[in-house]
Amino acid sequence: MNHNQKKELSKPETIEEYYASRPFLSTADVQKNAAHFNVFRIGEPNIEDISVPFGKKDYYKICIITGNSRIHYADKTFEVQEHGLLFANPQIPYNWEPISSSQQGFSCIFNEAYFNHFGRIKDYPVFKPGGFPVYELTTQELSTIKAIFEQIMNEKEGRFEFRDDAIRTHILQMIHSAIKMRPATNTIPEKVNAAGRIASLFLELLERQFPLENSSSEIQLRSASDFASQMAVHVNHLNKSVKEITNKTTSEIIMQRLLQEAKILLKHTTWPISDIAYALGFEGPTHFSGFIKRQLQLSPSQYRNT
Fold first, then answer.
1. What's the predicted TM-score (pTM) here?
2. Segment 126-143, tens digit of pLDDT
3. Dihedral angle at the C-alpha atoms of 83, 181, 128, 13, nearest 10 degrees?
4. Residue ranges of domains in the chain, CATH in brackets
């Protein structure tokens, strides 16, 4: 993403805004806060364009693309040489930047309400922060995923009484196929106990603070004590629970998330470095610069310009 493409990060794009920016799509079945699903072909006239602004979207998205492209996902960039598969979720900002002129494939969007009482869609590794969201597919793997998308297209156009259940089943089939292709090695089995609930709430509160809407925003929870106070638990209990579930300290997770957000803001906005420092809760630009240098061996300006 070049300098001219940088912009202020905004609130997550809603499904309503998604359709409003694509006037050729029908909004007849879009109802606020209701379950929603749609599927599109990419590469046909007046159909889904993968080139979208970097930022969060208030819905889930699964895409396959044939064509050279780059996926900017959180603080990382993945280059797809031939066939790419993306699993995007409402927690992580992203965009898909086409490089070659020819881009063909499929895209589907849905919200969490679409999967109410039909599995826990957000718990799959492909949709978790730190999971594996981008796949470079072989020709055979592309054929497998493409066939599932074709089945979804057929179901969407049909009048089968249990059409949505069939579509959900195909989406889960696609997720399972991807996980089998590249098993996730960095996900932690869920522990349904007090420690698991506390760690989950901590991670949810941490993630809720992002994205920052503008350069004058500032995160409110930055230390383990801040989170413990918000959750009404003792800080030692919070630290023990987080360590048990994630095998990382509370402070490590907070610092890793601040680093990820700092990298996003340095790369995808033109905010002054001092504004980024204060927005992320640092005492000033000097402290922020020291943090970035320790983590990346580069100054904030050097990282921004690489």
1. 0.71
2. 887 767 788 899 999 999
3. 20
4. 3-181 (2.60.120.280), 194-305 (1.10.10.60)
